[in-house]
Amino acid sequence: MRPLSGAATPTFLNVATGSSTGTYSTMFKNIGKVCAQSAYLKERGTSGSLENIDLLLGNEVSLAFVQSDVLKAKEQIDGDARVQNIKALLPLHSEEVHLFAKPVVQKRDLLGRVTTTGVGTFNDLKGKRVAAWGGSIITARVLSAKLGVPFAVLSVKDRDSAFALLRANQADAVLAVVGQPATWVKDLSGVNLIPVPYAPALQGIYTSAKLLYPTLGAGSVPTVAVQSVLATRDFKTPEKKDLLLKYQKCAMSKLVNLQEDEGMHPKWQEVTFKTWPWPQYK
């Protein structure tokens, strides 16, 4: 059906998510199932939070799924004043830090002395190499500094590149920030989940969490988590503001559907829309 003569052209906004199989993309599609306003939002696949913030600040997208620690680092470490113009349209779920390494290897010499190589604890990362991509690059650097364990962060373009380095022994571990349960994590083999300790130095940015992946042969693995947000810029034009606020209102009013309808991502079950780690868009 053609729009009536004189009718306003609909406003379409681009939304930066992540990989097509990731939590961000899935949750964006989930909102689309319950909110008609999503028809005016177009998904743009990316490498994750770091690219998403750059796209948002560069005016290439109007909304972006991001980790709140990456936002804070952009503001406090990089001193990027443009971050002051970013607002949280929706506060979302916590994303857990997943730290992967090959199984620890023990060798006994002729004198019976045992040497251990590999990564079994977070402290074992000292002086080693950790591959990460997207917002996880920032998380790796922040955790290294806050927990006092210096290691080199290898910046790669995506997940496949990170694990290729690990398999080739060119990285000692892989760090990924992703909401569990992540399908791709369930499919991994030949790696262990390494505990990430929670310390007072992380308070205000991260919270204590646990990972549960029976397929990796692990029970409950301690880690830390950071809250994610669907962020936007502080738009003032009436058309954009109206669309964004209606989308925000719809998602909030449909939280029960997002939590209980079959096929929705399990991370919705921990969303409350009550904790805002970043100033709210109003």
TrEMBL record:
Pfam families: NMT1_3. PANTHER family: SLL1037 PROTEIN (PTHR42941:SF1). This is TAXI family TRAP transporter solute-binding subunit. It comes from Deinococcus multiflagellatus.
